[in-house]
Write a structure and sequence with these properties.
The chain has one domain: Lipocalin, CATH 2.40.128.20. 0% of the residues lie in helices and 62% in strands. The protein contains no helices and ten strands. It has a ten-stranded antiparallel beta barrel with strand order 1-2-3-4-5-6-7-8-9-10.
Length: 159
């Protein structure tokens, strides 16, 4: 049976070459799957704020969303699902091109509106003594041969 811990977390995504910065601070549940594998589940807050204007950014971001991260020193998978329309799943592993898949939910359950991008993971750093406390993930996002930016995903799990 997996061990779980309720923890406050801070999750940030920023671009190093585009004006993109998003931060979520909330409580999350950390599940220990085995010695080096963890799942982190958090509810995205009701209304995320834009850094530029401090107003809710869109109706898509006001619905309840579940953000699920699968963490290990070798790979990270992040999935956003919930009662909102916009969903995604990212797969990152150092030194390889992973897949970032995006789709819109509709009432029929059809996800034919899905599209995929590639991401190249430059570095993945997961730290913590017994439980993870810090994640830093640096990656490039690609569509075909066009680079769509450089990104840093930063996660602090407070104990």
């Amino acid at each position: 049976m997996p061990t779980n811990h309720r923890r406050p977390v801070s999750l940030s995504l920023m671009s190093t070459d585009l004006p993109i910065l998003s931060t979520i601070e909330t409580a999350a549940t950390l599940y220990q799957k085995d010695r080096c594998q963890f799942h982190l589940l958090l509810n995205q807050p009701e209304a995320m704020k834009s850094v530029a204007d401090e107003e809710p950014t869109s109706a898509l971001e006001t619905a309840r969303q579940l953000l699920w991260l699968e963490l290990s020193p070798a790979r990270v998978i992040m999935t956003l699902q919930g009662n909102g329309k916009f969903c995604y799943r990212h797969f990152w592993e150092p030194g390889i091109y992973g897949v970032s898949r995006y789709w819109l939910n509709d009432d029929s359950g059809d996800i034919s509106n899905a599209f995929r991008l590639r991401n190249y993971t430059r570095s993945l750093k997961l730290e913590g003594d017994v439980l993870p406390e810090y994640l830093r993930l640096e990656y490039e996002l690609w569509s075909g041969k066009v680079q769509l930016g450089n990104y840093i995903l930063h996660l602090d799990i407070h104990h």
